[in-house]
Design brief:
By secondary structure, the chain is α/β, with parallel strands linked by helices. The protein is built from 14 helices and seven strands.
């Protein structure tokens, strides 16, 4: 088998050319890196070195104490930091734009202001002599103030000077509220913004998402001074397939893991992109673990010195960083070539579903109106029953029938 790309592959090919050697790749075992067993043997690619079936092993390998005791390692070709990988914050649903304009406290204050304005209008109208009957009742003033807030003119304008003056002030207030509301609703429909981004270990625990990482990282995360970290390590899921875990973070958004910054940077250029080309993997904070990349060889390998020399030359010449950046550029070009470009990428389409809160309010209003109608019918029936009862008693009194009402 052969590999077409990867900056470590290019580094190995560079070292092989300097040594005038050819490369034969072996198929990687299912355990990939592998682990050390209780009897001292290894699994995965390290087993190949221990059995002398391979001359060098690498796959994002880093310096680790267990491996260095049983195998030789080359000079480092760069640092490798491990960071928390979390789902990127998702945009707010556009249909929530109406409810996001004001906070719950602000909404309550607005409704209280409407009630207060209706009460003031009623008092001013009752104090005046030449005022319409509409403004002398609390219900009539409430309808008028509510209509002005909604941008609808009331059925009749007030006639007295005090009521007109307060009514003009209320119109200015309503225009300001309406302008502010419409501006923010439109901006939220165009750009809804992002929900809260996970930015700390405490956010991970509070978000309720699952978390896990490769078992090899457990020893490096044992920090007794950090209670949140201890809780995460204790309840984490084993993540033996790192690629599958990072894909779960990107696609499903219900998982958090730890991965090296090179993998995250590469995946965000090609494999973990959204429909609009945005990255789906995010990181936060400093590097949780800082290690160094290296290649492993069997103990006593005669190739160690020559590999060290070639790797040192490549690092000092800046070739390793150049190869890494070229891999990222190639990955971005590949992602752009298969992406479907839509003519509406820079435009926002307003859909009927964005008005979902308005229909909820309409349904709530209809329910309130229906309950009011049923209540009025119920009160009418009660008042009619009382009236009929009083009429029957009056008829019985006139007819001379004794009863509880004329016993006195």
């Amino acid at each position: 088998m052969a590999y077409e790309g990867g900056f470590e592959i290019r580094l190995l090919e560079f070292a092989a050319r300097t040594m005038n050697m050819s490369i034969v790749y072996r198929h990687p075992p299912s355990e990939l890196w592998g682990e050390k067993l209780e009897n001292g043997s290894w699994t995965g690619i390290y087993k190949e070195l221990m059995l002398d079936t391979a001359d060098i092993a690498f796959a994002g390998t880093i310096l680790s104490q267990n491996e260095t005791l049983d195998m030789d390692f080359t000079v480092s070709h760069g640092p490798l930091g491990f960071m928390w990988v979390v789902p990127c914050a998702k945009p707010f649903p556009r249909w929530k734009s109406i409810t996001r304009v004001f906070s719950l406290t602000a909404w309550l204050l607005i409704f209280m202001t409407i009630l207060l304005a209706a009460g003031i209008l009623t008092c001013l109208a009752k104090c005046g002599v030449h005022e319409l009957t509409l403004y002398k009742t609390l219900s009539g003033c409430l309808f008028c103030t509510w209509a002005v807030v909604l941008g609808v003119s009331p059925s009749s304008a007030p006639s007295s000077v005090p009521v007109r003056f307060f009514f003009i002030l209320w119109m200015w207030y309503s225009v300001a509220i309406n302008t502010l509301f419409q501006t923010f609703v439109t901006s939220y429909l165009v750009d809804p913004g992002l929900q809260k981004q996970i930015q700390s270990i405490g956010d991970i625990l509070r978000s309720g998402v699952q978390y896990g990482f490769h078992p090899d990282l457990n020893a490096s995360l044992q920090d007794e001074s950090n209670k949140h970290l201890i809780e995460i390590v204790t309840h984490s899921e084993p993540c033996n397939f790192v690629e599958a875990c990072t894909q779960r973070v990107a696609k499903r958004g219900d998982f958090v893991t730890i991965s090296n910054h090179h993998r995250v940077e590469y995946l965000n250029t090609y494999k973990t992109l959204g429909d609009n080309g945005e990255a789906l993997l995010c990181t936060f904070g400093d590097k949780v673990i800082l290690s160094f990349k290296t290649f492993y060889l069997p103990q006593g390998s005669p190739l160690l010195y020559r590999f060290n020399r070639a790797i040192s030359v490549a690092v000092q010449a800046g070739l390793v960083e150049y190869w890494w950046q070229s891999e990222l550029v190639t990955s971005r070009i590949k992602a752009a070539s298969i992406r479907k470009i839509s003519p509406l990428d820079n435009y926002s389409t307003f859909l009927l579903i964005y008005l979902q809160p308005a229909f909820y309010l309409l349904l709530l209003g209809h329910c309130f109106a229906f309950l009011t109608f049923v209540g009025e019918l119920f009160l009418h029936q009660i008042s009619q029953f009382k009236l009929n009862h009083q009429l029957r008693q009056a008829v019985m009194i006139q007819a001379g029938y004794p009863g509880e009402t004329n016993s006195v």
